[in-house]
Write a structure and sequence with these properties.
Largest sheet: 3 strands, antiparallel
Strand order of the largest sheet: 1-2-3
């Protein structure tokens, strides 16, 4: 607790107020304020004690300029909602993509502001943050639009997304002197359970392709499995990113370049980010009051990649393009030529959720094991790891930034490969080695060999 300290100096007696406030590591740090007299120290003591209780430094307003006073009062009154708005304005709009901006705004609106939005920033402590994170999973998640199923409780993954926003925002508050240390650095997040996504085996996919009479779905399933594509990357694939010809098939160099994705995004978020990640905007077909369908750049550099095609899939693409050219000639001016590989009969693009629903209807109709369309990407990675045992190559096809991400998702396959390595070593190396001298058989034949030397 703050106290008045009297010291004798050569120039006379000096009075100080001594108090402690946690530093950026959460450790108490000593602070001193020099006063001109004992009376001034006594008058200031109560204000310093109040500031100490709130966990922030005391500022002597008589030594601040008029502008500084206004700034300090604004900082002192700033709430978490105000801080997050400042964080989005200063950082998010400048650096995030439009889809990230929309997602973070939704997280702030649904899971941060209703709980701690009105609390002054200087009152946010590590203990309060921990209680907030512990309480979140006890509440229901926000009902998603067009979802009929009742929402479940807020997941640990959502809490992690909340933390990803609050931690840098509170770092901004430290920079501005609102708080002295970041309380989000010392909190513990709830454990995030790992859910293994159900996926088809190679044999199951072969059977599914053999009974599929939907040409477009057949091509989509083949591309996702062969190239380990995300659904939005498949929907955003254009012919200028496809290298498939009879010449490329002859030397097995057919490939696709994955550079963009198809998304439906919020118009306001796109406007706020200056459309810097937008490659092409499509005209609205249905609705489109607040959202627009676009081709946009991928989020990470690792996602931009080249994936080689099996010759069979390259031939599929060549044949499908020929059919698409015939459709253009038939419709002529009524065909909207956007250069999309996965396109409707009139050339308009298919959204990813349409492809997913189309696949789900096919699974139900044919009584196949229930998996989602995205799981074909997992099946692709699994089969490639089984065939090659090359994590780095599979990482490149998946577009993962780190190899450990690939290893963590498909660890079961890697363990299976390691067991095969042990069996292979036993067959190829150890089986031809003569028996060691301490085998059980020799001990039985000469039970007292070692006793003769005693």
């Amino acid at each position: 607790m703050a106290s008045v300290v009297k010291r004798k100096l050569k120039s006379g007696t000096a009075y100080y107020i001594s108090y402690r406030v946690p530093d950026n590591k959460g450790l108490p740090k000593q602070h001193w304020i020099r006063c001109s007299s004992e009376r001034e120290a006594s008058d200031m003591l109560r204000r310093v004690q109040d500031a100490e209780k709130d966990g922030h430094l005391y500022f002597n307003e008589s030594e601040l300029s008029f502008i500084a006073k206004g700034s300090m009062m604004a900082h002192k009154n700033m709430t978490v909602s105000g801080l997050l708005e400042q964080y989005i304005t200063e950082y998010g709009v400048q650096h995030w993509q439009s889809t990230t901006l929309r997602s973070h705004r939704a997280t702030i609106q649904n899971y941060i502001c209703p709980f701690i939005g009105n609390i002054p920033v200087y009152r946010i402590t590590a203990k309060l943050m921990q209680e907030y994170y512990n309480e979140l999973p006890q509440h229901k998640a926000k009902q998603a639009p067009f979802h009929k199923a009742p929402p479940e409780n807020i997941s640990a993954r959502t809490v992690k997304e909340v933390h990803k926003i609050l931690r840098p925002a509170l770092k901004l508050a430290v920079r501005d002197g609102i708080i002295d240390f970041n309380p989000a650095l010392s909190v513990l997040l709830p454990p995030q359970p790992k859910h293994k996504r159900p996926q088809w085996t190679g044999e199951e996919l072969k059977y599914a392709l053999s009974i599929c009479d939907d040409e477009l779905l057949y091509l989509c399933m083949s591309l996702v499995f062969a190239c380990s594509l995300r659904t939005c990357e498949l929907a955003g694939l254009t012919w200028d990113c496809v290298n498939a010809s009879q010449e490329s098939i002859a030397d097995h160099s057919s490939c696709i370049y994955i550079k963009k994705e198809l998304r439906r995004i919020d118009k306001q978020s796109m406007k706020d980010t200056g459309e810097r990640d937008i490659i092409k905007k499509f005209p609205p077909i249905l609705g489109g009051k607040t959202t627009v369908m676009v081709l946009k750049a991928l989020k990470t550099e690792a996602s931009t990649r080249r994936v080689y095609l099996p010759d069979t899939v390259a031939r599929l693409l060549i044949n499908y393009k020929a059919q698409q050219e015939k459709q253009k000639e038939f419709l002529q001016g009524d065909y909207h030529d956007y250069g999309m590989v996965i396109a409707q009969d009139n050339g308009n693009p298919y959204e990813g959720n349409h492809l997913s629903k189309r696949f789900s209807r096919f699974v139900r109709k044919n009584n196949l094991r229930q998996v989602v369309f995205y799981s074909l990407r997992h099946s692709s990675a699994t089969e490639k790891l089984r065939e090659t045992h090359d994590v780095k190559s599979v990482q490149g096809d998946l577009g993962h930034a780190r190899a450990d991400m690939t290893e963590n998702v498909y660890a079961g396959i890697l363990d299976e490969s390691r067991m095969k390595i042990a069996v292979s070593m036993d067959n190829e190396f150890f089986k031809d080695i003569k028996e060691p001298p301490f085998t059980e058989q020799k001990d039985k034949e000469n039970p007292v060999d070692g006793m003769d030397k005693i």
